[in-house]
Inverse folding.
């Protein structure tokens, strides 16, 4: 059977499973559509949250990022998991107690203001729409690579699949599909990693293999990797980072951004009780960690494998001849994601770090520049081929990559559509709409959101690469502080929260625009995006944490100069703090 | 009624203390051991590298998991002690 047929079988049967779940889990009321009826078991919700959270970026790109940056890019590992500790202790249980459907619901009620609710809706929509574009393009790429259709056709197929189970089932359909998608993606990620760990370190568990002995050389894997990259002019894989302030702020921005992203928060509205929301955050972290503990192992092993492929006799010896390159290099050359150019005309593949510090050494070896360009996103996708694994593993990776992209896209689309139907239409425009009417509007908004996301996926605005910074910056600097103050302070009032959110949002956006271009229009950046220009060495991607501090300071200052919130709002704050008791806003 | 309020207030204070303690550990594992204190811990070797690297790529995630479950367990127990469970 050829590879295409195998891929088709794997992807096709995973889709059949999602369709089956969609038909079984149709939503009959708004409560089912928005929060899956509030009856999801905490362990299942943990699994669904993990699939919701782990996007195409986690599945495909993260290992490549770590492979390229080594220790310096550990920020992604810590940032994208540490946020769940904040979510578990500072937000999820109280918002579950509040017991309504959306994030702007809470901000609007707690700060007794339609304006606050609308600001929250705007933040939510900007953050989620930018995020969903990345998922749709990711799904398009996965389709075109594995099913040999063009990118736009791939996108449309992805959109139809999501449409089917998200519009029909709402949160209920999405939740149970995400559980299935989690299983598919974690198996797809783990199997190749286990094989590679066995090959390199004789260790079954990749996370342990990472710190074990490299079988071939008899020295620890990471020490071996450090030695190899050093010989080729790269920085040591485990080298420390000089700018610790920026590393800390970047990690913190990712953490508070994670905790403040609405599509993650609403997952905790689906469990039956406050106690379950707490457990569920722990389970989500366990299921996320299964991938996040494997990713750094995949990163270092794939990097070593790649360098050993190019330098089979060691980095101080001659690299391979281009004519003898392995099959998988040829496969990926056709996609343009691996490029080779024989600069010194010796027919061999020189792959090294082409920097001034290494110039002398390179010249001495007769090298005229780095000749191999490997896109870091292919590491996970090419892993099975690099390790010579059977072709069904490649089919599995295809299904896994699509599961990661689709599950996150569906979660984001639900967050967007519920903000429109529940917060904008029922909350502001037509409060008297019936439950049936609202359900219909929710489905229509979902449909529109999918069409817009598909269109933007086909015609990505120039800033697709900046999307992560934008989404995390907005969620971390605007929504996270507002939610936290709404729970932990009785004194912060409506005007304080609104000015705080706007100050956090605007300061973060301005700092990002200064270095990455105003509204991401190329060529409009006020300063070159280099560490010398950054304020105190803080990169635009790390500014979300600073924006959050500005938000807190402004909100507290303005609140202390104006009247405290009315008594019933202080009672609302009391009621969300206690799982049972003082009565209040619970609707069931 | 004042008894009730007193009870609730104690529960909330206990929760705040628990959160504060947990967040100290959270920050020590990630910002401390994995980033700021890495040079200090470089003498401790773990599988071909140092303890700080291990915390950055593995240890901090394990600490996060333990913290989240510990908090859930402890809070659910507090709920019952104060008679505030659902």
């Amino acid at each position: 059977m050829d590879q295409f047929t195998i891929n088709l079988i794997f992807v096709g049967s995973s889709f059949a499973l999602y369709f089956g779940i969609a038909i079984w889990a149709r939503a009959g009321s708004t409560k089912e559509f928005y929060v899956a009826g509030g009856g999801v078991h905490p362990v299942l919700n943990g699994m669904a949250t993990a699939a919701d959270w782990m996007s195409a970026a986690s599945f495909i790109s993260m290992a490549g990022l770590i492979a390229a940056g080594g220790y310096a890019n550990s920020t992604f590992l810590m940032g994208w998991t540490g946020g769940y500790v904040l979510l578990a202790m500072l937000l999820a249980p109280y918002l579950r107690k509040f017991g309504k459907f959306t994030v702007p619901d809470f901000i609007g009620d707690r700060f007794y203001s339609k304006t606050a609710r609308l600001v929250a809706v705007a933040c939510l929509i900007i953050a989620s729409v930018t995020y969903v574009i990345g998922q749709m393009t990711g799904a398009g790429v996965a389709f075109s690579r594995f099913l040999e259709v063009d990118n736009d056709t791939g996108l449309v197929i992805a959109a139809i699949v999501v449409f089917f189970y998200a519009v029909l089932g709402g949160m209920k359909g999405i939740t149970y599909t995400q559980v299935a998608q989690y299983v598919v993606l974690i198996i797809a990620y783990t199997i190749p990693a286990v094989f590679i760990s066995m090959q390199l370190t004789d260790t079954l568990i990749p996370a342990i293999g990472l710190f074990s002995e490299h079988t071939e050389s008899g020295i620890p894997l990471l020490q071996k990797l450090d030695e190899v990259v050093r010989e080729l002019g790269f920085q040591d894989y485990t080298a420390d980072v000089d700018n610790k302030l920026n590393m800390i702020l970047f990690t913190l921005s990712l953490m508070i951004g994670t905790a403040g992203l609405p599509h993650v928060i609403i997952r905790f509205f689906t469990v039956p009780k406050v106690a379950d929301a707490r457990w569920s955050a722990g389970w989500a972290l366990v299921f996320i960690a299964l991938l996040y503990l494997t990713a750094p192992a995949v990163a270092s092993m794939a990097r070593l494998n790649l360098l050993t492929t190019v330098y089979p006799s060691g980095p101080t010896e001659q690299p391979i001849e281009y004519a003898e390159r392995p099959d998988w290099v040829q496969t990926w050359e056709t996609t343009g994601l691996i490029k080779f150019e024989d600069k010194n005309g010796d027919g061999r593949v020189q792959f090294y770090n082409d920097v001034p510090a290494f110039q002398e050494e390179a010249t001495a070896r007769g090298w005229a520049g780095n000749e191999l360009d490997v896109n870091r996103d292919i590491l996970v996708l090419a892993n099975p081929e690099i390790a010579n694994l059977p072709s069904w593993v490649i089919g599995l990776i295809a299904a896994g990559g699509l599961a990661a992209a689709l599950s996150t896209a569906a979660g984001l689309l639900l967050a967007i559509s519920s903000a429109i139907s529940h917060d904008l239409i029922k909350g502001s425009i037509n409060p008297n709409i019936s439950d049936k009417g609202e359900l219909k509007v929710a489905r229509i908004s979902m449909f529109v959101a999918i069409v817009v996301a598909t269109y933007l996926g086909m015609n990505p605005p120039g800033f697709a690469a900046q999307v992560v910074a934008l989404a995390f910056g907005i969620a971390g600097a605007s929504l996270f502080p507002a939610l936290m103050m709404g729970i932990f302070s009785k004194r912060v009032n409506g005007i304080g929260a609104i000015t705080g959110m706007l100050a956090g949002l605007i300061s973060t956006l301005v700092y990002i625009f200064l270095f990455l271009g105003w509204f991401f229009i190329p060529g409009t950046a006020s300063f070159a995006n280099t560490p010398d220009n950054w304020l105190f060495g803080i990169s635009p991607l790390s500014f979300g944490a600073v924006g959050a501090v500005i938000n807190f300071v402004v909100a507290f200052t303005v609140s202390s100069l104006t009247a405290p919130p009315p008594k019933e709002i202080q009672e609302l704050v009391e009621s969300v703090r206690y799982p049972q008791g003082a009565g209040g806003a619970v609707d069931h | 009624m004042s008894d009730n309020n007193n009870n609730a207030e104690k529960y909330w204070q206990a929760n705040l203390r628990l959160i504060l303690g947990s967040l100290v550990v959270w920050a020590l594992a990630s910002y401390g051991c994995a980033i700021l204190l890495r040079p200090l811990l470089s003498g401790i070797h773990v599988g071909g590298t140092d303890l700080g690297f291990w915390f950055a790529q593995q240890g901090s995630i394990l600490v996060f998991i333990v913290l989240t479950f510990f908090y859930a367990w402890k809070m659910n127990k507090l709920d019952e002690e104060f008679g505030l469970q659902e």
The CA atoms of residues 32 and 38 of chain B lie 8 Å apart. The first helix of chain B runs from residue 2 to 36.
